[in-house]
Amino acid sequence: MKIIGTGRSHPSLVVNNEMLSQILDTSDEWITSRTGIKERRIISSENLHDLAIDAAKKALSDANMDAKDLDYIICANVVNEFVSPAMSCLIQGAIGANCPCFDLNGACVGFIYALEIAESFYRSGKYKNILIVCAEEPSRMVNWHDRTASVLFGDGAAAAVLTEGDNIKATKMSASCSWDRLYQKHELQYSPYNTKPDSNQPLVMHGQDVFMFATRAAIRDINAVMKASGHKPEDVDHFLIHQANLRIINNIKEYVKQPDEKFPLNIHKYGNTSSASVPILLDEVNKEGKLKRGDLIVLSAFGAGFVSGACILEW
Ligand code: UT7
Asked: For the chain, which domains are there?
């Protein structure tokens, strides 16, 4: 497949580090030096699905495609206010598409998981035009009294439209279960037969374990897609890395020994927006006119599970 359109949508509220230091025992100095984040967008009056719909419409318009021509919609999402139906159904209705759709929970790797699935759907010969939407509101998962996790995340949505092409050169996906290093349990309805305690628990994160996993997994996955596609780091024009922590991105940059210009950043503006992170960055560099036809792009992301994935594609 090839990507022919991108779009993104952000909540209107900007929450900077100074604002967080008024409600948490933290500081701009700590957050900036440990993560690279200066501010993030947080959902206040908006609905996440409205951001998802907005991002989807922008991507369709960028691709010059009518929603009626879509053959599938895949939405990557971890939580939103609907347990059911899937958010992709809300998007499908709002944009006026007729195609089937489903949601996937690939944590922060959702976009790359969706790309690989879209590519497989296309290769099956059954579907041609596929919309991927990633929409996340981690601000509704974290404990806002826990300074270690709440300062890291931001909310947002981004989308990409794909059609037939030979531009996805290689993908590498992985999962290795260490669920207790990064997780959230949500509240379920009362059952008279349930004998277990309530599971409701805000996000739990063992930051240093996630950090180590993320660095190792990203380097391994990037190596794997380079090898599979027969490319070297110097052939790659853009490395779009999940914007979770500037220090993780710097470790990857040091490993591949490529210049800063190849690693666009927006972590200072948005923090970690989970699966929306990579496609938000993709849309930014696309709209800034930084992508030329034929450019080689590496995408890499990692997250709760642990899961990770990378993709090398030609623009
Ligand atoms: O999509 C994947 C999602 N998650 C991630 O990518 C997270 C990956 N991990 C990280 O980014 C880093 O581990 C963190 C940014 C979460 C933490 O950085 P760190 O350098 O590993 O710090 P630390 O956990 O070792 O904490 C150092 C100190 C501790 O204080 P003491 O014990 O040294 O007195 C923490 O209590 O910093 C303290 N601390 C804070 N201080 C001010 C932790 N959070 C904060 C905070 N403000 N927000």
From this structure: 2-166 (3.40.47.10), 170-314 (3.40.47.10)
